[in-house]
Amino acid sequence: MSCVLAIVNQKGGVAKTTTCLSLGASLAEQGQRVLLIDLDPQMNLSVSAGVREPPDEGGIVAWLTWGLKEHGDHRSFMPLGLHPDGLALVSGDPELAALERQLPGITRYEFGLHNLLGGVASDYDYVLIDCSPSLGPLTVMALTAAYHVVIPVTADYLAAWGLMQLITTIETIKERTNPILDYSLLCVMFDRRNGISRVMLEHLQGSFGDRLWRTVIGLDTRLREAAVAGEPIVCYAPKSRAAQQYRQLAQEVMAFFENRNGRGIHAATR
User: Fold this and answer.
1) Res. 149: pLDDT tops 90
2) What is the pLDDT of residue 11?
3) pLDDT, mean of residues 7-21
4) pLDDT tens digit string along 84-109?
5) 82 touches 95 (CB < 8 A)
6) What is the distance in angstroms between the CA of the first residue and the CA of the last residue of the chain?
7) Do residues 184 and 265 touch, judged by C-beta distance below 8 A?
8) For 102, what's the count of Cα atoms within 13 Å in the CB-facing half-sphere?
């Protein structure tokens, strides 16, 4: 059974898509079978992975539409193979925006993605879902399907302030549709030269403790270059600082989920 992670933050520009692709590729590089799901109508994850257009058929919209039926049909599942080996993608589609507007009128729509993943989970060790920068129905669907939420957050005051709304939403989902849901925070785009950033990181560590991953992802222009090139950072610049940091995060993630009964996200590495 695969571990399903939703990468979520309603604030844009916090390296959410970068984290989804970079972590997924780092896990695949270390021998894990990884499925990426682009659940954002803007298709940022797909474009960053080199997929500029949605597939003509069998894409995310058709797949989700079948999943919303009482007996979901999995025959449309046609992920795209990526590099490194072991990494696959269900690409996004701008038509997701239209589907999202219809979701609230569909009974138990929250379980659509959960139902679909039940038919493919055995094929993957990890499923990473890149969500749109909102707390709308598509994100609710992702949170219902996920085992764990990874929240990328920058070390600045406004980003930390906005966390409470997202955490409240996660707790609501846990009560209503997904009792096993848990969450953690990942500090991204960290500027070690900035005194305020260092203070805010200490604040996050003090406030969230074991819910904050030890790995910190620093600022690195190579990440932007990799997105333009349509490659994960571990392929585009394998020796870069960012590539090494995401590999370290992948090791942390694997250690934790191999020891799910531990306390806090760092229990497995203590």
Assistant:
1) yes
2) 85
3) 93
4) 999 999 999 999 999 999 999 999 99
5) no
6) 25
7) yes
8) 10
Q: Are 250 and 23 in contact (CB under 8 A)?
A: yes
Q: For the segment 231-253, what is each residue's pLDDT rounded down to a tens digit?
A: 999 999 999 999 999 999 999 99
* Eight-class DSSP state of 86: T
Q: What tens digit of pLDDT does each residue of 103-133 get?
A: 999 999 999 999 889 888 789 999 999 999 9
List residues bridging with 152 in a β-sheet: 186
The closest alpha carbon to 197, from 186, 209, 189, belongs to: 189
Residue whose C-alpha is closest to residue 108's, from 141, 132, 135, 136: 141
Model pLDDT, residue 268:
36
Location of structure tokens 């403790």: 209
Strand partners, 5: 128, 148
Cis geometry, peptide bond prior to residue 84 (ω within 30 degrees of 0) = yes
Is residue 40 packed enough to be buried (19+ CB in 10 Å), middle (13-18) or exposed (0-12)? buried
Task: Look up residue 244 and give its two tokens.
Answer: 């090494």
Q: What is the dihedral of CA 122, 127, 131, 137, to 10 degrees?
A: 20
Question: Which CA distances in Å does 10 have to 16, 87, 190, 211?
Answer: 10, 26, 19, 19
Q: How many CB atoms lie within 10 A of CB 108?
A: 12
**CA–CA separation, 19 and 162 (whole Å):** 19
Distance (Å, whole) CA 44 – CA 188: 18
d(CA 108, CA 104): 9
Segment 250-267, tens digit of pLDDT: 999 999 998 764 434 443
Report CA torsion sign: 131, 55, 250, 236: negative
Could you give the maximum distance between any two Cα atoms of the chain, in Å? 54
Q: What is the pTM of this model?
A: 0.92
